[in-house]
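Regression test case RT-17, inverse folding.

Input:
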């Protein structure tokens, strides 16, 4: 990882406040993150010249702070300015207009993230139901979104079209036929499920939620902490509340925690008194898996990730999950589901334990079950 001089200078400034506590630096697509023993600091990437740079950075940081203080007030502590001395050194002491702005957060223990708990075998049914109930409580206080079922469906189909188009790129080496058939079946299913989408809208189940509820954004401490609410797009935060919970359950499945995924959904749906159709929920999960597959292979277009095979493996895992949930969603039309499974090349492994590898070459034997 190439670290710019500015990022090194901010790390040096943070280290001055705690001698011997050198910050760990992490890069995301949108930010640089500095981890000290007690705090996490986030610097938004802004591609503009100062002073417009600092003003936009402040606006984006304050927006992220406000969105996340609503769900994790004990974690998101404030937005802090950095100034520049006459000698050109970065400092906390006010001197003219701020040069940069950092989001200051309480650091949560790494080993208490949902992702880490799953990896260590500490995320069982009881913990999963607790997380599900916490998400339900969060959604209870989210604003309902005034979205029509037609708009909701059009957004789902637009995202699906983008996913299929990019996943079929030859440079990724995925089965173009398999991806196209998966997309075709999901588009048909969207039409069949239109009345159910209408009912969800009428029931007030569309909320402005988190927008990116992955396992790395959930921590189990004394309370369940949900962080990193998506801040750059309100439209991406607007979704069926069960869709958002289903996405986190999907992440549990990818991490080989299928029983926990089921318990999480039980806790969530029970707390929300939500009787969503299983076919619709599986459809949502299949669509989400397609999007995550696209985002995974997109890493291969970036120089620093181009030779990391894990991103293609992750995309294949997501495509297998998309296929599985699409098949479940189509349970009312088994002949189509079976036809889809027979035509998709290279599927192997059980439902949750092994990757569903959509590679070129092999074909699924007729009649083989997905469930392990």
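Golden output:
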């Amino acid at each position: 990882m190439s670290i710019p001089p500015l990022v090194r200078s901010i790390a040096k400034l943070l280290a001055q406040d705690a001698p011997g506590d050198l910050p760990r630096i992490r890069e995301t697509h949108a930010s640089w993150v500095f981890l000290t023993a007690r705090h996490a600091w986030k610097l938004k990437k802004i591609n503009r010249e100062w002073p417009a740079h600092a003003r936009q950075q402040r606006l984006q940081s304050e927006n992220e702070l406000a969105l996340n203080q609503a769900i994790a007030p004990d974690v998101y502590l404030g937005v802090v300015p950095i100034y520049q001395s006459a000698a050109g050194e970065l400092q906390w002491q006010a001197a003219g207009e701020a040069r940069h702005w950092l989001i200051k957060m309480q650091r949560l223990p790494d080993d208490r993230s949902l992702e880490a708990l799953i990896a260590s075998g500490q995320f069982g049914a009881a913990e999963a139901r607790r997380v599900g109930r916490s998400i339900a409580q969060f959604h209870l206080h989210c604003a309902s979104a005034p979205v029509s079922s037609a708009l909701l469906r059009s957004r789902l189909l637009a995202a699906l079209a983008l996913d299929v188009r990019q996943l079929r790129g030859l440079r990724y080496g995925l089965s173009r036929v398999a991806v196209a058939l998966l997309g075709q079946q999901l588009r048909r299913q969207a039409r069949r499920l239109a009345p159910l989408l209408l009912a969800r809208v009428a029931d007030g189940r569309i909320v402005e939620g988190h927008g990116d509820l992955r396992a790395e954004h959930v921590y189990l401490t004394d309370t369940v902490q949900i962080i990193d609410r998506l801040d750059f797009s309100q439209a991406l935060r607007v979704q069926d509340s069960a869709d958002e919970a289903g996405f986190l359950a999907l992440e549990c499945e990818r991490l080989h925690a299928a029983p926990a995924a089921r318990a999480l959904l039980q806790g969530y749906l029970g707390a929300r008194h939500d009787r969503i159709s299983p076919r619709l929920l599986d459809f949502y999960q299949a669509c989400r898996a397609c999007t995550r597959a696209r985002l995974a292979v997109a890493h291969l277009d970036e120089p620093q990730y181009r030779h990391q095979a894990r991103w293609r493996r992750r995309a294949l895992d997501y495509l297998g999950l998309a296929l599985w949930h699409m098949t479940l969603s189509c349970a009312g039309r088994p002949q189509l589901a079976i036809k889809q499974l027979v035509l998709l090349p290279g599927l192997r492994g059980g439902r949750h334990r092994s990757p569903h590898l959509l590679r070129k070459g092999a074909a699924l034997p007729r009649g083989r079950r997905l469930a392990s």
